[in-house]
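Predict the 3D structure for this chain.
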Amino acid sequence: MGQTYAEIDERLHAFITAQRVFFVATAPAEAGGHVNLSPKGLDSLRILDPRTVAYVDYVGSGIETIAHLRDNGRIVVMFCAFEGPPKIVRLHGRGEALEPGHRKFDRLRAHFAPGGAVRSVIHIALDRISDSCGYGVPEYRYVGERPQLGTWADRKGDAGVRAYQEANNAASIDGLPGLRWVTEGS
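Done. Predicted structure below.
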């Protein structure tokens, strides 16, 4: 039976940091908009304190999470055990996408490995922390990280990545504004 927690305790911290993939879900405020669910990996999440997490958001073809956070701030992060005992942990909260140039970006970015095609750091204040059994989640074995994102970004270079973001990260599939520096010209 699942339970809720007041904060991320040592046991939850150990479980969360042991997972190699997690999933992020957001939705626009408008009922007709598309719900988004994105897989994340690459050692990109940090627990900042018992009720706050952050993850590095790498450049991608969509901008749904950032657009939805700008729209309403709602977010849930889910971890499920693909190895070891079955377990699912969900972190519900209010998120903010901090792009380069934001006053908190550099401080939070310092929690992660340098490099990579980082377009923002997603900062989440948690308001609900829960777990469930995970009995229906199959077991998989971790093989390794995929190198394609880094290779792609290196090949494009800074100017190419920036042009890619201008072309692909200005608006969500529902037309919500994406990256601030693209939509507001900053």
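The radius of gyration is 17 Å.
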